Amino acid sequence: MTLLPSCREVQTQLTEYAEGTLPLPRRIGIWIHLFFCHVCAGFLRGLRALPGLAKRALAPPEAAPEEASRALAEIQTRLKRQQS
Ligand SMILES: [Zn+2]
Q: What is the reported pTM?
């Protein structure tokens, strides 16, 4: 038994890792692996781009949607000013 999971192990458990359903020792092992392994880290980035997970991550903030859209309008106005 090794301390760190192999790339194969990491990649088969990445979905659960991204969803946070893995037991803590597993999560730590995978987290450390991802820190050193760019291949598996790339896999995780791909996973997070999937619709289900992305939807959760990109869900609009519940607090102060009006303020958010006002801030967005302000940014757009400034950008237009810079362009002209
Ligand atoms: Zn790996």
A: 0.56
